[in-house]
Design brief:
Length: 742
């Protein structure tokens, strides 16, 4: 436009003609770790400018000078149409770098196993920048971090927070193609400006010379008291016994200590690096220099050498850290514009004010970007790589979760890092843990509200994973595993019980009122008391076998029943006892049999049989490992042996009558061997002791009865053959023992 006869400043938008606007005045600020911002008042003869298109297109503000222009590239964050004077329309533009775009993006997301530089690059690209728009000049060591959470933060706040923590900072470089974001952590990344390194100190006076127009007019120093040291303390749950402490010196002349707890470092080495960053952050505030100049190419992030200062120690290298720009060319407006100008506006001008630190001091940004903190709890879901049939934990019993806000697409075990779960009971070699399956809803809490330090507070039910106790069974306390194992306690009055149930083979233990799992109700007795049931193998082992039956007892064995007692067995019955062998046997009341000699009467004759060490298992069972010495017969047996042989039928009758009289057992044809077996079942320890003594006498009688024993054995064999319902194995064993001893 032909508004201006000459100009020192220019503004252009790529969507409009280069001479669309004229710059009236401007103000701008820039510095380390912040986006520069220029507010520019413009004038134009175009009243119908498309304001929306201006926001979409790059723009450039330029300070014009003979030795090379100073451009500031960027985007328009704001554009205002103001008022009109005659045919001229006034506008205001706000110019910012493309990095400002990331302030428009607010995210909630999780980064897993990535270093801070990797996270920075990912966020910058997500915010609209390309790899050509930024440059990372880093020297520090940045290990991968298991879990980093961005929560309710803009991209820029998230980036700034992490860079401030790690000691990184950024500034901008400008060239004819645009601006470039430079991120660094070291002072060796800074260089001198292209326009020159030396800056001259020249305070205002009447002796100013034209060739010294671009000079530093004011330069002052501010010294600030510093603490002596910094100390950091933290806790790492992976190394709970390791002291997580680190420190660094700030100034040898300082006083006091800055103590910080909970900065979330994981190793002492990482703590030492953070402590050093904190110390350097404080140290770079100790000595600051502030000045004013007319040098338009003075920029944050670049070095300059001060010269001609009256204090010689100030003539050294400095690093500019922040800058405020101001300028006007209102005096160049055509006289036809009816606008009053202030005294300052009657002459075009440019000036700036700046802050700097000594070039040998490492700059660190102030930690001023607040972290978004969690308050209360947050819901999440247990995550796993598998199907979820079984809980998936790591070697420390930790879980992975899916956060409801995460848009990174994580899942199948990639939604988070391994998280601890709070337990009601824990300790060395003891504790309590009920594993959680995939899809279970949990509540997360956060250490110090830090989104990077979540802990599973507990599981909560929902309609998809309902509670095992509801209004339908409110009197019960239940624990049910994923496979159906159950511990159930019923508190309803009159139905109190405890039930332990395993679905495998229908096994359960119930104490109290019946409410057993349905196995076969036709066969299951539902009575108060204790029930043990299983459809599979049941095994009980103990050092000592004790059986106590209080009340009724019934036992039935269908099939073989084999018992063996290696040393001693004592059966005691108080009251009545009934044994039902193949023949009928009944014993009532208390009976004591003294096994010294058993006298039988057969066919009117007396027969005395003495047995030694006979141990039997049951009334009609075979003798197992018993040792029977030879029976002794009275001398009267010799006289009666002929009548026993010829009157064998009468002997059986008399023998049966004797058994019925003594034992009240129905069923005839029980021979002498059967009686001996029955007596053995009823023996006690005291009787056994007496029998051992009597056996000694029996051996003497056995010697006298050798000749008649053979005939008696013949009689016994005939009697056994007649008793067809006696167990042949028992008779055969007795005869074998008698034969051996004789």
């Amino acid at each position: 436009m032909a508004l201006l006869t000459q100009k020192k400043f220019d503004f252009a938008s790529s969507g409009l003609a280069t001479d669309t606007f004229g710059v009236v005045r401007f103000g701008g600020s820039e510095g380390f770790s912040r986006c520069y911002r220029f507010e520019i008042d413009l004038v134009s003869t175009e009243p119908e400018i498309d304001l929306r298109s201006l926001l979409r297109n790059p723009a450039t503000f330029t300070i014009l000078r003979e030795d090379g222009d100073i451009p500031f590239h960027g985007m328009l964050a704001q554009f205002d149409q103001l008022h009109q004077v005659d045919e001229y329309v006034f506008y205001r533009a706000v110019l910012v770098p493309r990095l400002w775009w990331v302030t428009l993006t607010h995210h909630n997301q999780v980064f897993l196993d990535k270093s801070v530089p990797e996270i920075l690059q990912e966020v910058l690209k997500d915010g609209g920048l390309t790899s050509l728009d930024f440059d990372l000049r880093l020297q520090g060591n940045y290990p991968k971090r298991e879990y980093v959470c961005q929560y309710r933060e803009s991209h820029l706040d998230f980036l700034s927070r992490w860079m401030e923590r790690e000691g990184m900072y950024y500034y901008f470089g400008q060239n004819e193609n645009g601006e470039k974001l430079i991120i660094t952590d070291t002072r060796i990344a800074h260089s001198e400006m292209d326009q020159g390194k030396s800056m001259y100190y020249s305070p205002p006076s009447a002796l100013d010379e034209a060739h010294r127009e671009e000079v530093i007019k004011s330069f002052v120093c501010r010294q600030t008291a510093l603490p002596r040291s910094v100390r950091l303390q933290d806790y790492n749950c992976q190394t709970p016994s390791l002291e997580m402490s680190a420190g660094a010196r700030v100034s040898g002349q300082g006083r006091g200590e800055v103590y910080i707890y909970g900065d979330h470092f994981r190793t002492p080495e990482e703590g030492s690096a953070l402590a050093k960053v904190c110390a350097e952050e404080l140290l770079c505030k100790g000595e600051r220099f502030y000045g004013e100049s007319t040098i338009p190419y003075l920029r944050p992030g670049y070095l300059f050498d001060l010269q001609d200062h009256y204090r010689h120690s100030f003539n050294q290298s400095y690093l500019t850290i922040e800058l405020e720009h101001e300028g006007s060319q209102a005096a160049y407006l055509l006289a036809g514009i009816r606008k009053e100008l202030s005294e300052a506006e009657r002459q075009p001008y440019y000036r700036n004010s700046f802050a700097a630190i000594p070039g040998g001091v490492q700059f660190r940004p102030e930690r001023k970007t607040a972290k978004a903190l969690f308050s209360g709890a947050m819901n999440a879901q247990i995550d796993a790589a598998g199907s979820g049939q079984y809980a998936e934990l790591d070697d420390q019993g930790r879980y992975k979760v899916l956060l409801p806000f995460d848009r990174s697409g994580g899942g199948n075990g990639k939604g988070s890092t391994w998280l601890r779960m709070a337990q009601p009971y824990a300790g060395a070699d003891h504790g309590m843990h009920f594993p959680l399956h995939k899809g279970t809803e949990v509540l997360l809490t956060f250490v110090d509200g830090d989104p990077d330090r979540p802990i599973i507070a507990g599981a909560v039910p929902n309609p998809e994973t309902p509670s095992p106790v509801t209004s339908e069974n409110a009197t019960r306390c239940r624990m049910v595993s994923g496979s159906g194992n159950e511990i159930h306690m019923e508190d309803e009055a009159g139905s109190e019980r405890i039930l332990m149930n395993a679905p495998r083979k229908g096994s359960f233990i119930r104490i109290g009122a019946p409410n057993d799992p349905i196995i076969d109700w036709d066969k299951l007795m539902s009575k108060d008391g204790i029930a043990l049931a299983t459809g599979g193998f049941f095994d009980v082992k103990a050092q000592v076998w004790n059986v106590i039956i209080l009340g009724e007892s019934a036992s039935m064995t269908v099939g073989n029943d084999n018992k063996f007692v290696g040393v001693l067995r004592v059966d005691s019955t108080v009251g009545a006892r009934f044994n039902f062998p193949m023949l009928w046997e009944k014993k009532c009341g208390a009976e004591k049999t003294k096994w010294i000699g058993l006298t039988q009467k057969a066919a009117g004759s007396d027969v005395e049989i003495t047995a030694n060490n006979v141990q039997t298992i049951g009334g009609i069972q075979r003798a197992l490992g018993s040792k029977v010495d030879a029976a002794a017969l009275d001398s009267r047996m010799n006289a009666l042996k002929t009548r026993v042989a010829t009157n064998y039928t009468a002997a059986i009758t008399a023998q049966t009558r004797l058994i019925a009289t003594k034992s009240e057992v129905s069923g005839a044809k029980t021979d002498a061997a059967g009686q001996a077996t029955t007596a053995a079942v009823q023996q006690s320890q005291a009787i056994a002791d007496e029998a051992a003594t009597a056996a000694q006498d029996a051996r003497l009688a056995a010697t006298r009865a050798k000749s008649s024993a053979s005939e008696f054995r013949t009689v016994v064999k005939r009697d056994i053959a007649a008793a067809s319902r006696l167990r042949l194995r028992a008779e055969r064993t007795v005869l074998t023992i008698l034969d051996t001893q004789v």
